[in-house]
């Protein structure tokens, strides 16, 4: 049985706005009020507006700050609409008016949550940024209009439209207005919040970009000239030339260029629709503009996603090439170790015998013999460790003592820590802690995380391990700036290290606090716990 009180408490904590979000909510309320009045310029009977910029503000805030702000955004819109007189508490039907105002932001929040939740599990380009944002930008207005359909059928007087045809037209106008508002307003806001990467690329002017700008201008200008020519000969105002031009620009130069082309088309079209046009003609123009906007933005987002996917594939190919080189190096090192292990063992034995027979000799000779014995023993131990690390036995899963695993990691990164003047501390570890896994892979992942900590710390890195139920928790802690990102380390990236740990049935997390303390935590199943 699920504890209802605990579930509701955790749900309220997850959607409660943080203190840092309050200025965003206040700014959104003001911007929503202004944009809501601007949208009235494209209003009509039975619908509010054929261009609703507030929808773009809404999805930009939800996407940048997270869907947890959905209740706060809905509350801000309720307050603004109450101040506008749309909601009059105590008046007949005011509850239905509140539901009508709160339904779109709640629907938008649900769509953003679903898209962000499902995107990591998609295996195609649809899951590569910025395609999830493009999908959410199209899906949210459609979902909001569909969510309004049952209420409109139940209370048709809420839409101000009489008859089934006018009801469908009202909901279509609602969807078109939200689509245009989202596509025209949300992208520049998100680029501004994310540091304007798209605008920085556009601002870099060189010969290649000048040629690209000329090509885009030529394509868009030709499409507009063709549309004007077709309209002049009495064939109406075709949308196909502009649609193809914007799609071409988006596919060729990405979503920033595609959005700029869309903005040009919108700037030419929207001033004509603010006048006293018949509803059918105005709706046709806005639907044509919406199709151009959606196709242009989706094409640009798809182009950017493809470019990013190609970069990821190139990086993966380089890692595979590096893995092959490491495999070859491992084979060579095993051969070298095999050749030197026997002579080195003989030297170690003879050095130990020399130390024994020189014990009664002159002190200088005895000290030299003892030094030779220690160095030979250390070198012999190092060769045995390397031979064990490179042997094929470690490729098979086995019960590994956590203490020995951490000692091996410390031995591998010890010289690097010394060179970086960093103190590597290891807390006492229970010798009875064992995990089941492949020694070389787990050591590789831990070495990578320790190197990340060495590169980002202020002089001290600590390693600790303890048992938690049926799991072993290994923590690698250091102190750095709170915004310090996890670094790739020894060539095995953070994603690969996470994949290694998860392949062993564990988890990898990284936590940082305001003081700059960072801890990367590996959680692995205790050997024999599930048996």
Describe it.
This protein has 531 residues and is α+β, with helices and mostly antiparallel strands. The chain is built from 16 helices and 7 strands. It has helices spanning 4-15, 22-39, 53-65, 70-84, 94-118, 131-154, 164-193, 197-203, 207-232, 240-253, 255-273, 279-357, 363-390, 402-419, 439-456, 494-503; strands at 398-401, 423-426, 434-437, 460-468, 471-479, 507-512, 517-525. The strands form 2 sheets. It has a 5-stranded mixed β-sheet with strand order 2-4-5-7-6. Strands 1-3 form a two-stranded antiparallel ribbon. A hairpin with a 4-residue loop joins strand 6 and strand 7 (517-525). Helix 7 (164-193) packs parallel to helix 12 and helix 10 runs antiparallel to helix 11. The longest helix has 79 residues, at 279-357. The model is unreliable at 481-492 (pLDDT under 50).
Provide tags for this entry:
single chain; 531 residues; alpha+beta; 67% helix; elongated
Helix segment tally: 16
- General shape: elongated
First-last Cα distance: 27 Å
How is the main sheet built? Answer: 5 strands, mixed
Instruction: Tell me the series of helices and strands, N- to C-terminal.
Output: HHHHHHHHHHHHHEHEEHEEHEE
Biggest sheet, strands in spatial order? Answer: 2-4-5-7-6
Beta strands, count: 7
